[in-house]
Amino acid sequence: MNIILLSIQRPIAVVAAVIMVVLFGWVSLDRIPIQMAPDVRQPVIRVATLWPGAAPAEVEREIINRQEEVLKGIEGLQRMESTARNNQASVELEFTPDADLNRSLLLVANRLDRVTGYPEEADEPTLSTFGTEDNSIAWFTLRRAPGNTQDLTSYSGFLRDVVQDGIERVDGVAGVNVWGATEQEMRIEIDPERLAQYALTVNDVVGRLRSANASVTGGDVDEGKRRYVVRTEGDFTSVDQVRSILLRSDTQGVGVGRVSVGDIADVFVQFKERNAIAKPMGEPSMTMSITGQQGANVIETMEPIRNKARELAEGPLKEVGLVATQIFDETDYIKSAINLVLQNVVVGARWRSSCCWCSCDPGGQHSSWRFRFPCRSLGRSLPWQSSADRSMSSAWRV
Predict the structure, then answer these.
(1) Which tens digits make up the pLDDT trace of 157-176?
(2) Which residues sit opposite 156 in a β-bridge?
(3) Which candidate, 117, 145, 300, 302, has a CA 20 to 30 Å from the CA of 329?
(4) Model confidence pTM above 0.85
């Protein structure tokens, strides 16, 4: 069957097919999310365990080996990679693309509950999920306004509580990662000379602090028709509470009197050391990366993000003396790619029109311009052609 001949003999069907293709294309263009790259989700779960003061060899022996033993047979696991660093253990689990991330997360959490014998100083494992499509759609930097001399790390809590939470509530945002921020911690710096003077060791101080910083349930007490739950709250809430912790009393017969933490150490609150430093244009700053949800339209998501960032910049950030600047926007590349496609369509249409124009009747002797290329390709005269057209068609027959 000659498709060209069939198309010429049934022009209404061809027009209807073209209209349907254009209509379906327009509907698809309106519904398909506009992204720089399509979503190809590769579920990844990361298990992080902190152990302050531990060397990589100890982290591998005491934490990673035990976690790998229970995680290696999990359903849908495609790859497992472990990393031991100072103070931290990391196990990255990559699953097959068709795996349910929520179910895999539940399986990993259940397997980790089987691990026993963690070091006393190690924290509980934390789980975080991400995928290969979790690329940032926008980056922002926060720096001090002119005249503001306050330490930038002191704004870490404000950044997490106000800025990060505000942007994460925007529709289409999967998460906000903060770089350069830190947290407050209570530090106890022991003086070795004073420690030796009172005949104490570091283990004595650590053991006493651990036993004092604990909440214990004391059961319940029945009184008539009422039942009261007894609980002893011992969590530290201030520096003075830590300083007043008793390490030794007169009743122990050492002859040094009562000794508290404040007698052998300096107790104060400060910010942790930052694990990332950002200095765009040589100026200290904190940065935020925003990741979009799977299947979200990046162009539609970025508009409310800009509005929220503008609202924060003119409100809370301005009040505390901070300036926010957007340094990356994925929509710029998306719009550039769309403009390139449109430009190619226009250029292609012009070239096609030029070719069709050149294939028209060159003599200009007829009342209307007729395209010769389809007729010449068919190698036959069509019913609506004049005698002069038929003769020219025969001359140009291919």
Answers:
(1) 888 888 888 888 888 887 88
(2) none
(3) 145
(4) no
